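Input/output pair, single chain:
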Amino acid sequence: MEAERWLRIALDPVMTRIREHKQYLDTRLANLQRILENMGTLQNRMVQIKQEIGNLRHEKAELARIAERLVA
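Output:
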């Protein structure tokens, strides 16, 4: 019984440290998961913006053709 009590006392700081480190790792993992999700959202938004740029370039070219006809 005494040995068991001594073992608990001896291991308590180690167990506390392990719990703290696990909590730290869990927090880091959650942060990394949020970053990964944000990267996916950012990539999707970049695709949308590139499409919008293409559409705007097309519209600009069309407006330039219309302006040339009006001037001529």
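The two ends are 104 Å apart (CA to CA). The chain has a mean pLDDT of 95.
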